[in-house]
Amino acid sequence: MQKRILTAILLLSVIAAGCGGRETEVQENKETVSFTSMEEEPDLSYEVPVSTPGILVNQLGYMTESAKVAVFKGEEIPEEFHVIDVESKEVVYIGSPQEKESGIGALANENYGDFSSLKTPGIYYIEAPVLGRSYTFEIEDNIYEGIFRESCKQYYYNRCGMTLTSQYAGERSHNACHTGKAVFRENISEGCDVSGGWHQDEKGQKDVVTAAKTMSVMMLSYELYGQSFSDDVGIPESGNGVPDILDEVRYEAEWLLKMQDQTTGAVYSGVTVYQQDGGNSGKDADVYIEPATDEAEKAFAMAMAKFSYLYQNYDAEYATVCLKAADRAFKYAQLNEETEKDELGFAAAAELYRAAGQEYCQRYVTEYLKTENLQEKRSEVTLMGGVTYISTKRSVNIDLCEKVMNMLMDGTEAILKESRSIVYAVDEKESKDNNDRLLDVMYLAVMNHIIASQEYETMIEDYLHFFLGRNETAVCYIDSAGENDCNNTGYSPGIMIQFEADSKLVFMLSEVMLSSTGQ
C-alpha cells in the first residue's frame, strides 16, 4: 500500500497550519465446555501496590536498535546506574540518571537514564545505589512479535457459535455456544439465528456498535500497516492466502449480516444473554435480539463498507454482498434519523463514498465537515472517518481535507505538548485511562504515517513502554508480558482482554512492528 496519504493535500495543509544523558559503556559482548471471554469494560477498582521499585523499565523489553530509557524515582537519585546481565551477573553498561530538560522531573524526584547504545541481545536488570534494582527485561530484535500475535488472536478466542479446539485455542478451547434460536426483545414469539461473531464479555453479549468500532480499528491497522500482518497467526483459516486479521474480521462480518433485517435494511442493535440462575443449572440462557437503532445501522454501514473495500481483492463476490448491505443500512438510517448528522454517520458515509462513490454519501460528508468543529470530536470514529475521506481517490473538497488534516495535526501536537515535560512521557492523570492513551497512540500513528517524524515514532514507543511497566505503579498493563503483570496486582483486566482496547493495541503494535523494519 502507498506509504503516504495524499501528498498534495498534506503539503497544502502544512502550509496552512503554519534529552540527552551521560553514560559510560563497560562491555557489550556479553475440549472444554466453559469459556473465558474478553471484558468489554475494564474493572476500575484498582488496588495500589504496597510498594513499587525505584527503577522503572519496560518489563517485556526493548528492540536492539531502539531507544532504551529507564525512569529513576526516589527521594535521592544516585549519580550512577548499572545494567547487569541476569545470567552472568556482570555489569554490561554504566550510565547516569538525567533530569528532564524542563526540570519537572527533578521537582518530582524522577529522572531518566538512557542506555540505548546497549544492543547485545540478552536478559538484564538495572541496579543503582539507594534505589535497588528494577524488574528484568530483554533486549531482542523481535521483542514485540509475541504480544502482537497474541493481541490479534484474542478475537478468535472469543468466537461464538463454533467449537474452538485445543489445536488452535489451547487452554481456552470450548464447545460451540449460543447456537440456539434467539428471540426478539419486542416480540418473543419470533426470533432468528444470530449465532457467531465475538463475545464481548463473560456473558456472551454482542453489541453492534461496539463490534463495528472494534472491527474498523482493526481494519485501519491493516490498511495502514498491512505488511505487519501474516497468514500464520494460528487460527483455522491460517494458510488460506488471506491475512488472518481479515479472516477474523470476516467472522464478525458474517454475524453482522445476521443482525440486518433482510426486508427493510434495519440493523438490530445487539444480542443480550440473560441467565436467570447465574448459569448453575446447566440450562441454556435466554438470548434476546435488541431492537434496531439508527446508531447500529450507521455503525454497521461504516464497518461493512470498509470491509468490502479492503476485502474485494480476496473475494469480490462476498465484498459486494457486504457493500450492498452497508448501503441498505445507511439508507434506512437516513429515513429514520431523528438527530443531526453525527460522527458515526460521517464515518459510514466516508466509507461508502470511497467504496462505491454514492453522491448522497458525499453530500453527507460535506455537510458534516462544513458544520462540525472537529477539534471537539476527538474519537476513533472521527479519526477513522477523516482518514478515509482524505485517502479516497474520488473527488474530494480540498478545503475540507485541509480541515481534517488540521484536526489531526492539532490533536497530535496537543498530545506531544502534554508529554514533553513528563519523565514517563505519558500522562498519568486520573482523568485518563488506558483507552484514552491508546486513542492518543492512534492519532500519533496516523500522523506518523502521513508525515514521517522521529518525534512521533519515539512517542509511540514511549506509550508502549508505559503500558509494559514504565509507569508510576510499575504495573504491566498488557497481559502476561512482564514480572509485575496487571492480572496479579489488582489492576485486572489487562488491555489485551478488554474488547475495544485490544483492537487499539493491535493498531499500536502493527505500527511498531512495521517501523522496526524501517519501512
Describe what you observe in this structure.
With 519 residues, this protein is of the alpha+beta class. The chain has 2 domains: 7-15 and 142-515, Alpha/alpha barrel (Glycosyltransferase); 23-29 and 40-139, Sandwich (Immunoglobulin-like). The chain has 15 helices and 15 strands. The strands form 3 sheets. Strands 1, 3, 5, 6, 8, 9 and 10 form a 7-stranded mixed β-sheet that branches. Strands 12-11-15-14-13 form a 5-stranded mixed β-sheet.
Q: What would you say about this model in short?
A:
This protein has about 525 residues and is α+β, with helices and mostly antiparallel strands.
Defining key terms:
globular; 5-stranded mixed sheet; 519 residues; alpha+beta; Immunoglobulin-like; Glycosyltransferase; 7-stranded mixed sheet; single chain
List the helices and strands and how they pair.
Blueprint: H1 7-16, E1 23-25, E2 55-56, E3 61-62, E4 69-73, E5 81-85, E6 91-95, H2 104-107, E7 110-114, E8 122-128, E9 132-133, E10 137-139, H3 145-157, H4 166-169, E11 182-184, E12 187-192, E13 206-207, H5 208-225, H6 244-258, E14 268-274, E15 286-292, H7 294-311, H8 316-336, H9 343-356, H10 359-371, H11 380-391, H12 398-419, H13 434-450, H14 454-467, H15 499-515
Helix pairs in contact: 1-12, 3-15, 5-6, 5-7, 5-15, 6-7, 7-8, 7-9, 8-9, 9-10, 9-11, 11-12, 12-13, 13-14, 13-15, 14-15
